[in-house]
TrEMBL record:
<dbReference type="Pfam" id="PF03703">
    <property type="entry name" value="bPH_2"/>
</dbReference>
<dbReference type="InterPro" id="IPR005182">
    <property type="entry name" value="YdbS-like_PH"/>
</dbReference>
<feature type="transmembrane region" description="Helical">
    <location>
        <begin position="46"/>
        <end position="67"/>
    </location>
</feature>
<feature type="domain" description="YdbS-like PH">
    <location>
        <begin position="97"/>
        <end position="176"/>
    </location>
</feature>
<feature type="transmembrane region" description="Helical">
    <location>
        <begin position="73"/>
        <end position="97"/>
    </location>
</feature>
<keyword id="KW-0812">Transmembrane</keyword>
<keyword id="KW-0472">Membrane</keyword>
<protein>
    <submittedName>
        <fullName>PH domain-containing protein</fullName>
    </submittedName>
</protein>
<keyword id="KW-1133">Transmembrane helix</keyword>
Length: 200
């Protein structure tokens, strides 16, 4: 009579292990080699800032001309405010650019950004569902693209890396998706390896 025999004898490789980890031996993020985004991205941000200043100046001028005498806005105050805004924005763009960067590791993707509130996002390739490239009008003029990475169960992107040259963005997306496929295949192989064996 045929019967299904489940091989339940634990193998040495399958024995549960939960060894303590010394926090001092953990890898440091500071040791990760980050790749900078394109310098064109910084130039693009400065141009956008200049456009905003010009629009504010035009709007302020139109408002001043429409006001009655005695209510005209002080050109010195408005000019000083715009100069201050442009100076601060330029400073923030330059400092923020130095911190922005991404890194690829064997199992995950890292992106850091911010200035006052700095953040580092780490997404394992095993969690990534798909990635897409996009570009705006100004980005297209500078030959730049951004890559958006989505994880399973999310409706919005979990990570966005801006300021990438088109060729680099396409290479990065291909690398990420190749790693996603490899991780899925490895996970499937592990599940098959750990499943019970039926002997008839």
């Amino acid at each position: 009579m045929d019967s299904a025999i489940h091989n339940t004898e634990p193998k040495s490789d399958d024995i549960f292990s939960n060894v303590s980890v010394d926090p001092n031996q953990l890898p440091k993020l500071e040791e990760v080699e980050y790749q900078p985004i394109s310098p064109k991205y910084k130039a693009m941000q400065l141009v956008v800032t200049l456009i905003v200043v010009v629009l504010i100046a035009v709007g302020g001028t139109a408002t001043s001309l429409s006001l009655q005498e005695g209510q005209i806005l002080s050109w010195s105050i408005m000019g000083g405010a715009m100069l201050l805004f442009f100076t601060l924005r330029t400073l923030l763009v330059n400092l923020g650019y130095k911190w922005k960067g991404y890194a690829l590791r064997e199992k995950d993707l890292i992106y850091r950004s911010g200035l006052i509130w700095r953040k580092v996002i780490i997404i394992p390739f095993a969690r990534i569902q798909h990635g897409e490239l996009s570009e705006g009008v100004i980005e297209r003029f500078y030959g730049l693209k951004k890559i958006r990475v989505y994880t399973a169960g999310g409706s919005s992107s979990d990570l966005t890396i801006p300021g990438l040259p088109k060729e680099r963005a396409e290479q990065l997306r291909k690398f990420i998706m190749d790693r996603v496929i490899e991780e899925a295949e490895e996970e499937a192989a592990e599940e098959v390896k750990g499943s019970p064996v039926d002997l008839n």
